Amino acid sequence: MTTPVRTGGPPADSLGQPLFPGIRSGGTAAEVGPPPAAWPARVIDMPAEDIPELTPADYAGATRKIMHGRNRNVGVVLSVVLLLPADGQPMIDATTVNGPHRPRLANPPAHVALPPEVFTVQWKRMTLRYVWILSNAQAVYPVGGVLFLPVGESTVAYLVTFNVGALDDRRCTNVHHAEMQAVRWVNEQRAAWKARLGGIGIWNLSRRPGLGYSPCNACCADLAHFLTALRAAAGGLPRRASIAWLTRYDRNARCGHPTDTANLRRLDASGWRLCGPGWTPRPAPRHPGPVVRQP
After folding, report:
1. Domain layout of the chain by residue ranges
2. I want to staple 95 with a disulfide (CB 3.0 to 4.6 A). Which of 106, 153, 183, 252 is the partner?
3. Between 3.40.140, 3.40.50, 1.10.238, 1.10.287, what CATH number should domain 51-91+133-275 receive?
4. Count of Cβ atoms closer than 10 Å to residue 141 Cβ
């Protein structure tokens, strides 16, 4: 298929996606505008049995393709977030309605860019559909990731978030970090939706080869609080939560961000299962053998 040539409309990257020249707030979401020129909608065009099973690395790869040509400081960390339902029902309603330029979600979740237009990206001979989610630090960058719509009959959801700004030790905050985009998105959802969330898996990867930082100390604290609060509000759900990384974060020492063992232990104690360099699970306590009573 030949890529259409765009002859007008707002600035766009090589995939025809808008470069977000402005943003207008709108309650729990916001409107990115002006709207882009028309773009052909495409769907999965292969039998269900031929649809490949995608991995977190695939969703990271698709997001790298989506972000091609964008600010290189954005996406140094890509947090691939798997959201599992506890009730076996889809986490995301993928129903669409026609829009003036491309399909839109009929029942969009909170904290997505409005209008909730459905974009597409080609990956592994298939067309993945996604919508943009809002940033946790809109003054830095208006969007904080992409929410992929379920593939085929899948009930799980994949969210890929990214850091929305460059490292700046003059301003000690983690609001722009990739993990915080995911936390904000989940927290913005309705209580009934969060009560259905049975499991969360996070893989920290990157747009750059070989990177995939661990959560910084501030993010460890925030993720621990996030899971504790989520379980308290949802009667123990999600039951499973895990986070994995490729490289231990050692940047921004002035702000106390380099990941240390104490904060990883705090994350572990809150219920997250950890996997990555710098973390060694503590051995399970040894239980004494059965007490044998003499007659």
Report:
1. 51-91+133-275
2. 106
3. 3.40.140
4. 21
